[in-house]
């Protein structure tokens, strides 16, 4: 007998067999001299029985076992009597009558129960992660994560992708997020950087004729953390030569559909909806819209631009927009709920949020008195106003309006129960702007990264209106999360130089930062493009979790520490001397401020840059 | 048509088809107005033809193309006429008559030819790695590497292993090789370390009930480099619970056999030979013997211990050994070759190497006159002496004799052509000593690592003779290389404490270094053990290379630099300030010396510690 991983797989089909089991004591009960132990391994739990009638010396040995003892046992599988069957247990129709036992190891009482749904401080779970990982929900998550990786690999292998490992010790390119640095012992005063993504290397692999590359790659960003950020994270990194955007997205749709089918059994229809960046912002107030429900934002600037409601008219006159969200059926909101709309708007940068309730045919609210009948008529039509609706209005710069109403839309959608938690709604957000204007730096910055290819038909805008250039860039959005993103890349040197000019880089700067990539353009670079999936986040969504830490075996806390191994930690002075560095004690107790004006938010929205 | 990756796959079966091809110009020839271009993609090369008769404008466009231009072409596959077929080309029976062309990108003349077997300085290849990677032998290597990873994964998946990612930012454990350190921005004066292996995490995963874990893991050692070392390297890292050593090795043999069958078509017989560490040292002078040939070392201490050859007798008397290697048929060596044996021995720490030639029944050599007839008789029998043999003798401490004769054995084996370059000879070296005596530190050190399980029957030796304890440790050896290694691990706290005592650690020290692992022992740790394969080295042997750099897409040089991206490099002062460190300029030009007595050689022999 060497099938040892199968506590949870025993069934009536095994009745009569003698089996060996190895696992942990989940719980034990002594019923009148007969000992029942739930024995747990990776596959689940089975009840084993020690009885003086058949267990002999094994009973006394088993009697010493407590929770989380490790046992090796041997016995015969029998069918349970009808009244003792446990329908809550996969193996509940059988039990194993034990004749031999060995206590492989003892255990102290664990600091929290080894079961699902425990209410325990997360820091305790992380300190004892090796016990936390024994809990079935953590086991399921890690098994699903492993399976998801396998599905990615199998699909990509089938499409003739080559898995290539790119360096972890690489060069610092201080654009984007903060780098983690690694001092060099051999080269004093020089540093490696851990990669924020394999971006440049995967492009060089295309120059190198690999044609189709993938890697499930560890990436590093030294940013302040949130629930959905980790200092090291994993992306499924993909790059192809010779495919155009449509060909790549079609392939990635098949990949995504297969992933969701084979992990959680979900049927994902393809092709995915495609929505332009402009439409996503206009209709949903977000470039990662949750499309599980409608509740679209409507522009009403044209209707109210000459309104007596001065707040609307003045914003319209100064180039802003006025937009409305019809919160269907929310006219019943309390005064407090309505008042709370103001601080809600403020949280997203809005100066206010006008509202109108529609009850029994009557429009009420602070601004109603300023609306002309024809404006009310036009709004009724545009917003599909019905009795019981709550109309909300934001007037401001386009970005502010989008943030305010986009977040209000999510709040209302949740409140009204419009969101189907079991649905997976995918969309590609496409036609991103190539460049965004950085008001602080007074220059354009790359919205995706400096290697993103502009649309051919927009190339002439480099001369006249760089901000209007659309990029051949795309994000994959699922249920309001960005789960992937990428672009076609620039592959012609003259276009790359135009791009660097638009970013305000001198050719010297560009060459210092990306010289080896520019050099590569001179030697027959093929058209190429790719994508990266945020693997941790995909696993989070597949397992219905809301915290990335739940998807990672050994995660770090929000302050970037590993509570299990106590990393980071102090090191020997001799180690630092070898590395030609010394530490600079922090003055006082005030945390050191980030310096140098790094655009810390550049990567904020992106789980993956590809 | 979207089959675009297939230049090298066209054959007579495609004749008559219209195909689209995208690839690089390998070479071009103009024969009387007809242009022939060898077009190359990842799959190989095909000849495309431009002729005024069918190519129209495409001919003029193609005429501008030079080596490494990127072309997209469309045309009809035709059979070549008999006399123009190229038997050296897989596609040599066909050519493609081009009707449409687009130049996707131009190229400057590359710094070296894009073909196999070039004689180019390696540093130039590394600087232009993106061109080097286009060469067929590099493409083949990366494709095989990718395939090998897939085979590992598929096999392990089939055996129900779970792929788990372990942290790259982890805790420094200054035992073994030097750590790469990463300063923490959030925690001033604290550092992460890059892992030398996932050893502790994989053991914690076993404590966590994962039962079967694997990962193709990046590992980091800040050591001085050799041809077969890289600062970052890849190991296939494996750990299992509940399997004993025999079960694990049997499974790994099946894995290895499948890997070699599916990559290079080699039939590897299983089970693999097992040889004890003691026998390997005695017979082959090495713990990673090349078993493709015999030529075993023989101990003759008993024969010569009372010999008039004082060098033999005195060594024997002082506890050393006298051993001999019979270099069959080497009696013909020149005087210079025989003289060269002395510096050869010195290179491996030997004081000398005695020799005897046997020609026409006559024994000649400096020591012959000291040998009694009965000694000659005994040597003749022990060494199987025949006419034409060269007998070599080393007398010294056992380790020195092993190094000298082990290396001489390899030299003679190569010189005599005894080594079949196409053979793959595997063996497990087992029964390693648990502890080795460190003469400098005057204490025992772990031969494998401090978590290696002693043999049960040797446990009592902790009290009396720790150096004699054998470990449940094993190395996988192939053709004289160590390609994997591992051990069963200690899983009982009392044994681990005995081990730490034997290593001279106080419990405080042990707890500071490995406290979280010791804590884990208290909560039901299952018996477990594992292995790690040196993936880079396996790929090297599978592809017949002799340099690890050839197996890695973007390797580092012997001075740990990346010539392509120019890493490591200087960084902005602001970056260092954020990390609370500053650099210490090197004084003078003398390279900084490693400090603190790190046991730099601890990891020297091991491509992988598992």
Automatic annotation (TrEMBL), chains A, B:
UniProt region (Disordered), positions on chain: 586-610
Biased composition, class Low complexity, residue ranges: 591-610
Similarity annotation: Belongs to the class-II aminoacyl-tRNA synthetase family. Type 1 subfamily.
Primary location: cytoplasm
Top-level lineage group: Bacteria
InterPro entries, per the entry: Aa-tRNA-synt_II (IPR004364), aa-tRNA-synth_II (IPR006195), aa-tRNA-synth_II/BPL/LPL (IPR045864), Asp-tRNA-ligase_1 (IPR004524), Asp-tRNA-ligase_1_N (IPR047089), Asp/Asn-tRNA-synth_IIb (IPR002312), AspRS_core (IPR047090), GAD-like_sf (IPR004115)
A Pfam family of this chain: GAD
Subcellular location: Cytoplasm
Residue ranges, annotated region (Aspartate): 199-202
Chain's gene name: aspS
Keywords: Aminoacyl-tRNA synthetase, ATP-binding, Cytoplasm, Ligase, Nucleotide-binding, Protein biosynthesis
GO MF term list: aspartate-tRNA ligase activity; ATP binding; catalytic activity, acting on a protein; nucleic acid binding; transferase activity
Repressor found in the keyword field: no
Residues reported in the UniProt entry to bind ATP: 221-223, 230, 482, 534-537
The protein's assembly and partners: Homodimer.
Gene Ontology cellular component list: cytoplasm
Reaction(s) the record says it catalyses: tRNA(Asp) + L-aspartate + ATP = L-aspartyl-tRNA(Asp) + AMP + diphosphate
E.C. number: 6.1.1.12
Binding site for L-aspartate: 175, 221, 448, 489
Annotated function: Catalyzes the attachment of L-aspartate to tRNA(Asp) in a two-step reaction: L-aspartate is first activated by ATP to form Asp-AMP and then transferred to the acceptor end of tRNA(Asp).
Protein name (record): Aspartate--tRNA ligase
Lineage: Bacteria, Bacillati, Bacillota, Bacilli, Bacillales
């Amino acid at each position: 007998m060497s099938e040892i991983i199968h506590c949870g797989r025993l069934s009536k089909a095994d009745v009569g067999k003698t089996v060996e089991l190895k696992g942990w004591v989940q719980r034990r009960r002594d019923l009148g001299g007969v000992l029942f132990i739930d024995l747990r391994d990776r596959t689940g739990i089975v009840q084993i029985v020690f009885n003086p009638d058949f267990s002999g010396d094994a009973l006394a040995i088993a009697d010493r076992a407590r929770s989380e003892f490790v046992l090796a046992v041997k016995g015969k599988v029998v069918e349970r009597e009808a009244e003792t069957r446990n329908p809550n247990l996969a193996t509940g129709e059988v039990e194993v009558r034990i004749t031999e036992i060995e206590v492989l190891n003892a255990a102290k009482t664990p600091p929290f129960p080894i079961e699902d749904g425990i209410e325990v401080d997360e820091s305790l779970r992380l300190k004892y992660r090796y016990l936390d990982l024994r809990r079935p929900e953590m086991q399921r998550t890690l098994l699903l994560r492993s399976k998801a990786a396998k599905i990615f690999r199998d699909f990509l292998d089938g499409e003739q992708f080559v898995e290539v490992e790119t360096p972890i010790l690489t060069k610092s390119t201080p654009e984007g997020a903060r780098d983690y640095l690694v001092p060099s012992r051999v080269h004093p005063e020089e540093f490696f950087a851990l990669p924020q993504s394999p971006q440049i290397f995967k492009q060089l692999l295309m120059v190198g004729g690999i044609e189709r590359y993938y890697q499930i790659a560890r990436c590093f960003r030294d940013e302040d953390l949130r629930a959905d950020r980790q200092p090291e994270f994993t992306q499924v990194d993909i790059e192809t030569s010779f495919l155009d955007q449509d060909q790549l997205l079609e392939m990635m749709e098949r990949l995504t559909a297969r992933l969701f089918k084979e992990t959680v059994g979900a049927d994902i229809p393809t092709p995915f909806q495609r929505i332009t960046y402009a439409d996503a912002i206009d209709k949903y107030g977000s470039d990662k819209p949750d499309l599980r429900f409608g509740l679209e934002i409507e522009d009403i600037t044209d209707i109210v631009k000459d309104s007596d409601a001065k707040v609307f008219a003045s914003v319209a006159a100064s180039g802003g927009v006025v937009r409305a969200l019809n919160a269907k059926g929310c006219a019943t909101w309390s005064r407090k709920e309505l008042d709370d709309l103001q601080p809600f708007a403020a949280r997203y940068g809005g100066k206010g949020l006008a509202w109108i309730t529609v009850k029994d045919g009557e429009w009420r609210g602070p601004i109603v008195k300023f609306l002309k009948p024809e404006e009310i008529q036009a709004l009724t039509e545009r917003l599909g106003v019905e009795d019981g609706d709550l109309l909300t209005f934001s007037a401001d710069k386009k970005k502010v309006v989008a943030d305010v109403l986009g977040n209000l839309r999510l709040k209302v959608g949740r409140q009204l129960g419009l969101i189907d938690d079991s649905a997976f709604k995918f969309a590609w957000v496409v036609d991103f702007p190539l460049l965004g204007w950085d008001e602080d730096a007074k220059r354009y910055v790359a919205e995706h990264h400096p290697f993103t290819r502009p649309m051919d038909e927009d190339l002439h805008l480099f001369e006249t209106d760089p901000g209007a250039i659309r990029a051949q860039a795309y994000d994959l959005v699922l249920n309001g999360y960005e789960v992937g993103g990428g672009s076609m890349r620039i592959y012609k040197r003259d276009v790359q130089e135009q791009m660097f000019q638009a970013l305000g880089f001198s050719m010297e700067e560009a060459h210092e930062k990306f010289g080896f990539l520019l050099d590569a353009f001179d030697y027959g670079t093929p058209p190429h493009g790719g994508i990266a999936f945020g693997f941790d986040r995909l696993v989070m969504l597949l397992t219905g979790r809301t915290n990335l830490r739940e998807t990672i075996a050994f995660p770090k806390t929000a302050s970037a520490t590993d509570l299990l191994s106590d990393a980071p930690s102090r090191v020997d002075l001799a180690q630092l001397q070898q590395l030609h560095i010394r530490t600079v004690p922090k003055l006082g107790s005030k945390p050191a401020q980030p310096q140098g004006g790094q655009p810390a938010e550049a990567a904020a929205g992106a789980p993956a840059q590809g």
